[in-house]
Protein: CRISPR-associated protein
Organism: Bacillus caldolyticus
Amino acid sequence: MYQHIVVTCGVSLLTGNRNVFSMNRDEIMGEIRPWLSAANINEEKQRKIDEWIRHARQFAHEAARDPNRVSAEYSMIYELRRQGKLAERPTVVLIATDTVGGRIVEAVLTRLLEEDFAANVRVMYVDVDVNHPRRMQETLGEYMWKVADALSHGEPSTTCFAPIGGYKVMTSLGYIVGAFLHYPTAYMHEDGQVLHEIPPVPIHIDEQFVHEHFDLLRKCQKDMVSVDSLSYHEKQCVLQYPFLFHQEEELVYLSAFGQFLLENEKYKHLFATTYLVSKQVADLLRHNHHQSLFVHQQMRELAKKLKHKEGDVAVLHHEKAFKTIDGRKVKYHLYKGASNGQTAFRLAYRYDEREDRLYANYLWLDHNRYEREASKGKGIYEDNSPFVDMTRRLVGMER
């Protein structure tokens, strides 16, 4: 049973020859044709949109009588209900282009879905620029992020994602977003009226890959970069991963998927978090340099758990396991991290969610020593300042 439905909208509602709201229906309906793809909607265009919608409302009663002559989006919702897969009061998110056609389709569909399916309709507008390559990659990246945001409000098992309308590239990239986030995809063309449900194909970008190529990804996110300015290894990366990078003449920048990747919550801790360590932590790392990769990985893992609110509270707030610790004096939490066979990662830390800063106050690489000292409040009652920024060493980026 689907409670949450996310649909990308095209203009089949207006362009289908046999559709209830077709522009071919009468002279007034046809007046909107030259403006269908127009963006930058001014007062004159908005007046025309409102006038057309008022005229179209007189045909709205025909939709329920002949549901397969409305649009692909309407047919999708109708078919879900016919098959008993639609919840009683579903939430429907319409993702439409911010054009004259997009606004008309959204307004008509919103009213129909509210009246015919008791739906709670939400609307998200996207601006897709297909005329300029650089801008197209940026706007498609923004579109992918908005799809991800719309999907995130529902569980995969009760969410129907239907990227059926809009520019064809929106359907392709929409499926990639759904698969990347483990949401199945539904598709139905209004002519066939057959509902297809496609399970997500596993799509995964290894976090270590993002970490290794952090500088290049960040550089290409900020601006177009001259190919000549790239190192040999960076050039090879661009050629090897064309789904992340777009090359235009002698310039390279992030593709739509690359833009989406950097904005995705799954990797955001790599690109945004500031890691600050006390003198004790810095000194311990200096004397245990051979364990630095393990420690850095554990700190990134901790940041990920805190940002995503993942993990066991008993592990993130391990101080609660010590009966001798005075909770009134605690300034730092204890994190009981992993062990790599030789070394244990135990950290007294504080996370500033608003500033997205992780403060590492005291580090133990020996579990027995950790239990002896932590039980007495070592590292959690007082600051081991001053703190120094170690972000660059963890994620390859200067702050």
